Amino acid sequence: MPTITTKDGVEIFFKDWGSGQPIVFSHGWPLSSDDWDAQMMYFVTRGYRVIAHDRRGHGRSAQVADGHDMDHYADDLAAVTAHLDLKNAIHVGHSTGGGEVVHYIARHGESRVAKAAILSAVPPLMVQTAANPGGLPKSVFDDLQKQLAASRTQFYRDLASGPFYGFNRPGAKPSEAVIQNWWRQGMMGGAKAHYDGIVAFSQTDFTEDLKKINVPVLVMHGDDDQIVPYADSGPLSAKLLKKGTLKTYKGFPHGMPTTHAETINADLLAFFKE
């Protein structure tokens, strides 16, 4: 399997398909690069080079005990892009991966980056603070950690079959295959990485990162996102970005790159070609 080893000795798995302008995909918690299948297949057949890695502790990357924070996530992404010597790359991040992309660009600069898109993404800040009164109370994330520690297998089943894809909404038609694939990806990763990752995605403040970014960024968010609530995420990120464009999807769930891949892919392609 293609892997790189980071400077702190962590083996990171990645996929690298096709040729042309590179698109680098950063996945959400607690999944893997497999969550981008619908996008990678679409763009590799349209003349792009598509790259996606499994975050440390996730998927096929090493299940290390430490480094499950946004600084390490961004540095690992930088290590992949440097190893492949990517130039003029477009970065696409979903959920936690959206935070990873924002932090990577702000932390490592834009010399390799052309554009970015963040989908259902965690920035600017998920947790409620005095400065972020619209955020979710810390007790919400403490409870997620508690459920994960008690029974990760049940917790992941409940998330995938309920709020992640909006399968708990009236009239929704749950896909057993999609639920099982989410569960499969989650269970491939390490419990410690996923437990710590809840703090990383909920308590990292990306406000200053967003302000630093000069490349065009498309902010895509569904207004029925039950995981990263719309009002305190997408619109705020778009405002903080110098060249941010907000695209709001009526009724779309958190997992919209999977449930509404046709719409999302077409909109991404239009943005890439601008």
Automatic annotation (TrEMBL):
Keywords: Oxidoreductase, Peroxidase
InterPro entries according to UniProt: AB_hydrolase, AB_hydrolase_1, AB_hydrolase_fold
AB hydrolase-1 domain segment(s): 22-254
Pfam families given in the database record: Abhydrolase_1 (PF00561)
Record keyword Ribosomal protein present: no
Gene3D superfamilies according to UniProt: alpha/beta hydrolase (3.40.50.1820)
Gene Ontology MF: a single term: peroxidase activity
Domain of life: Bacteria
Family under the similarity heading: Belongs to the AB hydrolase superfamily. Bacterial non-heme haloperoxidase / perhydrolase family.
Protein name: Non-heme chloroperoxidase
